[in-house]
Specification:
The complex is a heterotrimer. By secondary structure, chain A is of the alpha/beta class. Chain A has ten helices and ten strands. In chain A, the strands form two sheets. In chain A, strands 6-7-8-3-9-10 form a six-stranded mixed sheet, with helices on both faces. A four-stranded antiparallel sheet of chain A has the order 2-1-4-5, covered by helices on one side. Classes of the chains: A alpha/beta, B mainly alpha, C mainly alpha. Chain A: It is found in: Cell membrane.
Chain lengths: 251, 235, 237
């Protein structure tokens, strides 16, 4: 459903992505792990054209596009198929929770207002914010804001949702509610590509885990492959650093 | 209206205009001096406990903010001698520059009272409490701890207010003060109102350069003082 | 001058000064209508560092902010007629430059002036709206224009509103310099009335009152509007 080949991206002299390939099928929940600066976030942003890749190719369903030279029209079409959940939520500050969710539907997709409101309310109900339709982002906690961010993505009924470290900006006690929501929508069969540091989420929810370092995919496989039997030295090192010593016994 | 545009008039008028910058500077300097003093008093009223004083100070600022400089200038110029006349004091021979300085001091005070108030309020209350807790007197705490910090905050706004003052000061020519603007009017008059455009352009260039110099100066000052702040931090 | 105030004149002239309000307001509104969009666009060129326009806007702002308004008025008022005259001559238009209503010069001067002020206002306001807002708008499928119209501009306006208010008040005050273009606004009308009997103190009190009322009203309206726009920030405040 989504296939990306040989994506390159540099900022100045700093090459962040050095030829990454990625393939995602319908219903996949793919988690990308890796140390900070490994290019995970940049990869996600390039897929949604928030950054323009220097080189690379993508196939989104029936759209076949060069990531560097994509036309405005192609970018717009792809963004209609791909939703994004931001690390800092990026809720529209001047819109209520419900308006945040319906904005893309009404304006971007020309869905009627009534229909959009219905979809929007359903999406907010799903993330447990039925009480907060008319709250502005400034009136919501970080966890609630991120749940609106997820509802905003879900409401668009996209082919895939990209999550860019959705819990990193949250206080520890708020991480759980967001992860629960993500688990629920994953269980509904939503295709997801998730950059995160939450190992438990990767282990329990993902059907595929990708380990990236220094701009390349080092290793990929099932959670079991990666967590229990990592083959590459760099993967082992990373896991040793981020997981508790006796983690292996929990699995 | 004259037909020809002659660049040489611009070059020739600049040396004639420059000596009169002295008057412009004098007006600005005195207005800054008196205006800042009055501004301090108003800021103290605004941040103090007296409700009446607060109302007066804020009312003053609002009124001054709503009054065009030229209107204030003429109100002072005609109004003060008229009021004084009612008490039998003749102020008709007082130099015009006095009224100009009064006008712009009043105006500058309104701006400065806000600059000082916001700078003062931007300083964390804990700073004062800490100063007192280590044994400084109230006055010492203000002088040694609050004032130096507030000064850095106020600096850019002070610079902006000064620029405004310089520009608004150009209106003093309307009551006949011969500063740089007044001199320009004299030159134009002497040319029988021809080549006014060239003289005004020369004047604009002088003001523009002056503004840029003042702006740069304040940027330098700001940098200097915030550098000092960092040094204090690291030692 | 020491016989005290002429109250009859004070009252009469108040209404003379008041009759100049429509002109002052017309100039203010026209200048804002031109300066708001133009200032916003040029602020965007500054923020996005569009090569030539950015530089142009920078110099333009520096000049307007670095020179007195009265000199800007004199420059426009003595240069535009020269330009017009040569245009009329060239195209054989049978029209006298002196017949041009001075309000047109006022429109030009105050639009140009306010545009420069608003470039700076919008530039600092735009820099407070995070890039993430634009990215989020793109990510839900909004086009560039839609994102600006629905997300970026409303947020920028709220931040910019207090400064737009200040700019508007300053603009109204600056129309008092219209006398230099023989514009029949508040100050000139009252002054002319005063010329007859040298009732300058009364005239300037009237002018002062009219500006005070006008500017206070404008500030009040802006405050109301700001409150409405600011709802989404209520909790933060």
């Amino acid at each position: 459903m989504l296939e990306i080949t040989n994506i390159h991206k540099s900022f100045g002299n700093n090459e962040i992505l050095k030829g990454v390939d990625l393939q995602i099928d319908k219903g996949d929940v793919v988690v990308i792990l890796g140390p900070s600066g490994s290019g995970k976030t940049t990869l996600l942003r390039c897929i949604n054209f928030l950054e323009k890749a220097d080189q690379g190719h993508a196939i989104f369903g029936d759209i076949d596009v060069n990531l560097k030279t994509a036309s405005k029209k192609q970018i717009h079409e792809i963004r209609q198929k791909v939703a994004f959940v931001f690390q800092n939520y990026n809720l529209f500050n001047n819109k209520t929770a419900l308006e945040n969710v319906t904005e893309g539907l009404i304006i971007g997709r020309k869905v009627s207002k009534d229909e959009a409101n219905e979809i929007g309310k359903k999406a907010l109900d799903k993330v447990g914010l039925a009480e907060k339709y008319n709250a502005y982002p400034s009136e919501l906690s970080g966890g609630q804001q991120q749940r609106v961010g997820i509802a905003r993505a879900v409401a668009l009924n996209p082919d895939i949702i990209l999550f860019d470290e959705p819990t990193s900006a949250l206080d520890p006690e708020l991480v759980g509610e967001v992860l629960t929501v993500m688990r629920n929508i994953a269980n509904e069969g939503t295709t997801m590509l998730v950059v995160t540091h939450e190992m438990s989420f990767a282990k329990d929810v993902a059907n595929r885990v990708i380990f990236m370092d220094a701009g390349v995919v080092v290793e990929e496989g099932t959670p079991k492959d990666i967590f229990v039997n990592p083959k590459e030295e760099r993967t082992k090192k990373f896991l040793k650093r981020v997981l508790p010593e006796d983690y292996i016994f929990y699995i | 209206m004259e037909k020809y545009f002659d660049v040489t008039y611009i070059a020739e008028s600049v040396p004639l205009l420059l000596p009169f910058l002295k008057v412009t500077f004098l007006v600005a300097g005195l207005s800054v001096l008196f205006g800042t003093l009055l501004g301090f008093i108003l800021a103290a009223m605004k941040t103090g406990n007296s409700k009446i004083a607060k109302k007066i100070a804020y009312g003053y600022t609002t009124i001054l903010r709503c009054t065009p400089s030229i209107v204030l200038l003429f109100l002072t110029y005609y109004g003060i001698p008229s009021i004084a006349g009612n008490f039998g004091i003749n102020l008709n021979d007082v130099d015009k520059i006095v009224f100009v300085v009064i006008t712009f001091s009043l105006q500058f005070a309104a701006a400065m009272s806000e600059v000082i108030r916001t700078a003062y309020e931007s300083i964390d209350k804990g700073q004062f409490e800490a100063a007192v807790s280590v044994g400084l007197s109230n006055a010492q705490a203000y002088r040694r701890i609050i004032f130096p910090q507030a000064f850095v905050v106020a600096l850019p706004n002070f610079g902006n207010s000064l620029l405004e003052l310089m520009k608004e000061g150009a209106l003093a020519y309307t009551i006949g003060l011969i500063d740089i603007m007044g001199k320009a009017e004299l030159i134009i008059g002497a040319n029988y109102n021809t080549h006014a455009l060239e003289i005004y352009l020369a004047l604009a260039v002088v003001y523009w350069i002056l503004s840029i110099v003042i702006e740069q100066l304040f940027l330098k000052l700001e940098k200097m003082f915030s550098k000092g702040k960092q040094v204090i931090k690291t030692t | 001058m020491s016989e005290g105030l002429n109250y009859q004149f004070l009252v009469d002239t108040f209404f003379v000064a008041l009759s100049g309000v429509p002109i002052a307001l017309l100039i203010t509104i026209v200048a804002l209508l031109i300066a708001l969009p133009l200032g916003f666009l040029l602020a965007l060129t500054r923020i996005n560092r569009i090569p030539v326009l950015n530089r142009f806007a920078q110099i333009y702002v520096s000049f307007v902010r670095g020179t007195p308004v009265i000199i800007q008025i004199f420059i426009i008022y003595s240069s535009v007629p020269l330009l017009l005259a040569s245009i009329f001559e060239k195209y054989n238009i049978n029209m006298n430059v002196y017949d041009v209503n001075p309000i047109w010069y006022a429109f030009i001067v105050f639009s140009l002036n306010t545009t420069a002020i608003l470039i700076e206002v919008f530039r600092s306001a735009l820099s407070t709206v995070s890039k993430g807002q634009l990215e989020a708008a793109y990510s839900v499928g909004l086009t560039n224009v839609q994102a600006f119209r629905r997300i970026i501009i409303p947020q920028t306006l709220v931040v910019a509103l207090p400064n737009i208010c200040t700019a508007t008040v300053n603009l109204i005050k600056a129309t008092s310099l219209g006398y230099a273009m023989s514009l029949q606004e508040i100050t000139l009308r009252a002054k002319v009335a005063a010329n007859v009997g040298y009732n300058y103190v009364e005239a300037y009190i009237d002018i002062f009152l009219v500006y005070l009322i006008l500017c206070s009203l404008v500030e009040y309206i802006f405050k109301l509007y700001e409150k409405r726009l600011r709802r989404y920030k209520a909790v933060n405040a």
